[in-house]
Design brief:
11 helices
Length: 330
């Protein structure tokens, strides 16, 4: 779903709660309730621009969350271990020369170089039919081919290991994966580089590697995938909130009002004033009630009123006394 443009977002108006002026405390509680109304918005951002900036940052950070050496699946890892543990003869080496010498002896034993004795076409060791020249050529080609493939594979893997060290450094800068896990993988890569160097110099040796030579690399890759999945979920959530910016804005208002000292102080002040007004209104009601009863039931005061009113009339003062309830205006 395409997000609306910034101009459209900022033109939207968030209205104040109803009767907020006459009952501000109730309005405040309604704003705080907005925090819990929208289960599908969770972030603390309050504007489209802030969310957009966060999304851009997360995309950059996610770019570093790429498993290292991921082309080396279980099959290739097994082949690598087998290659390191399999002796391969180097052409023109003393070992290869010994094999060639052994083959030459085999030629003599089978009379292939004896012009007087008939050539043996059956191997004296295994009983199979043989062609010594073909066998010798096959062995020589195999030595050359296996050695060349091994050296090429070592060179390629060394390059891949060097690249993976750079990727780990970038991953460490991003700060999304535990440094201990990264350090463990880096140490294992360094060990593998040493293994490759040893094998390059001594192809005829069995290095005796076990399956655990990739454990640190597999561990960091598992963590990278987990963090990447969490990042993908976070990106999806932020994009959803971009599309529901009004909900997010209302929730943000509630969060902004929650726990603020100035707001809490204002609420206390309003409560104190309202309490005082209630007490004054109650006192006024009691006074009105008292005067009303006094005016209706006090016969002694009625005589006093008559006396005073007569006196006032005698002296020419145009006043008339009476008890009456105090009226109030709100």
């Amino acid at each position: 779903m395409k997000s609306p443009p910034l101009k459209e977002i900022f033109s939207q108006t968030i209205h104040q709660k109803a009767n907020a002026q006459s009952n501000p405390i109730r309005a405040l509680e309604q704003w705080k309730d907005e925090i819990h109304h929208y289960k599908d918005v969770k972030s603390k951002f309050s504007s489209f621009e802030d969310i957009d900036q966060a999304i851009r940052q997360m995309i950059v950070e996610r770019g570093y969350l790429v498993p290292i050496l991921q082309e080396y699946d279980q099959t290739k890892r097994k082949k690598f271990i087998d290659a390191m543990n399999t002796p391969v003869l180097e052409p023109e080496s003393s070992v290869a020369s010994n094999v060639a010498e052994w083959l030459s002896c085999g030629l003599i034993l089978h009379n292939f170089q004896d012009g007087e004795e008939p050539e043996l076409t059956t191997c004296l060791f295994c009983g199979n039919e043989i062609d010594p020249e073909e066998v010798k050529s096959y062995i020589s080609d195999r030595i050359d081919n296996e050695y060349a493939k091994l050296i090429a594979a070592i060179g390629q893997f060394q390059k891949n290991l060097a690249d993976s060290l750079i990727e780990l450094s970038q991953l460490q800068v991003a700060g999304k994966v535990d440094e201990k896990i990264i350090d463990s993988a880096r140490e294992q890569i360094t060990n593998l580089q040493t293994v490759l160097t040893d094998k390059h110099h001594h192809t005829d040796q069995d290095l005796g590697l076990g399956e655990d030579v990739f454990s640190g690399i597999l561990a960091v890759n598992d963590t990278i995938r987990q963090v990447r999945d969490e990042a993908d979920a976070g990106l999806a959530q932020l994009r959803h909130e971009q599309d529901n910016i009004e909900k997010l804005a209302k929730r943000s208002i509630g969060l902004a009002l929650q726990g603020r000292q100035d707001v809490d102080a204002a609420v206390q002040q309003i409560g104190s004033v309202e309490k005082r007004l209630d007490e004054e209104n109650r006192s006024l009601e009691l006074t009105k009630d008292f005067l009303k009863k006094l005016n209706e039931k006090s016969s002694d005061l009625e005589g006093f009123l008559s006396l005073m009113n007569g006196t006032l009339k005698t002296v020419g003062m145009d006043f008339h006394l009476q008890f009456s309830a105090i009226s109030s205006t709100n």
